[in-house]
Amino acid sequence: MEDTGTIDIKSINEKIERESAFVDLLTLEMNKVIVGQKHMIERLLIGLLGQGHILLEGVPGLAKTLAINTLAQAVDGSFSRIQFTPDLLPADVVGTLIYNMKQNDFTIKKGPIFANFVLADEINRAPAKVQSALLEAMQEKQVTIGDETYILDKPFLVMATMNPVEQEGTYPLPEAQVDRFMLKTVIDYPKMEDEQLIVRANLRGFFEKVNAVVSVQQILSAQKAVREVYMDEKIEKYILDIVFATRYPERYKLADLKPLISFGASPRGSINLATAAKCYAFIKRRGYVIPEDVRAVVYDVLRHRIGITYEAEAENITSVDIINKIINEIEVP
Fold first, then answer.
1. CA spacing 20 to 30 A to 188: which of 14, 42, 164, 257?
2. Distance (Å, rounded) from C-alpha 15 to C-alpha 12?
3. Which residues span the domain enclosing 318?
4. What's the pTM value of the predicted model, to 2 decimals?
5. DSSP string spanning 175-195?
6. What residues does the ATPase AAA-3 domain cover (predicted)?
7. How does DSSP assign 5-23, residue by residue?
């Protein structure tokens, strides 16, 4: 760890303030179309800046598709939507080789994964081999078709949606694969006054046009700047304490959680919690991470990384309840 004396927090702060100037512009642009889903917009930005991917859970009709489409328009990036169905094949996602009779040769037909923003709609509707094709592309940021390997466009953000209502005829994502999503965000219904505005806009049939206010280049530059956000050793220790408390609760005076947790967060949890905290500080236009940044993102980063036992299910205890207990117990630096 670098010595704080050698780190010029003031210059980092000034740099981050310059680099993050577009955040307000982007949020304003998205708010033209998306009403009231502040949490979802913030999480999309964290995923984009942290070079991660997002799993969104919410009932149909909460503007999930609209949100990522609007973000793509505002960033001037390419957008594609894959509707996951039980008969989908991996080639429908990544692309395939097509025989060209004129040239007596195979040509590449790239799939919808080749875009800056990819919406994987109802990911739990497709069989395992399709899910793993998508997840491999998310992890490796590249796709192999035939003998050729293709690097995916940058920035590359996958937003997968899951419908918590219908579970019949679905293929739940295995725990190990869910871990590849940086954030799992649960979206709730809008407030009544927000929904009134949504109804009015839809009845009018007129939506404001979303303009491209940020370039892809600016986003790539911001992704680099996020890494420069200063994180003190105390904050690193705080993040590790939270993650380790999901694995060994008895070490943190939380022995009552032991029978409720089947497995704790992986090292990916620690990495993503640190990255998401830096992204949150960046969005708040700050060049350093404070404990509140960690607490703001901890639920979205860890809720899908903690396995709960049958005992916890029987007592109606969720991973969010477990995170709550951990956050309340662990000392804030």
1. 257
2. 5
3. 229-329
4. 0.87
5. HHHHTT-SEEEE--PPPHHHH
6. 53-183
7. GG--HHHHHHHHHHHTHHH
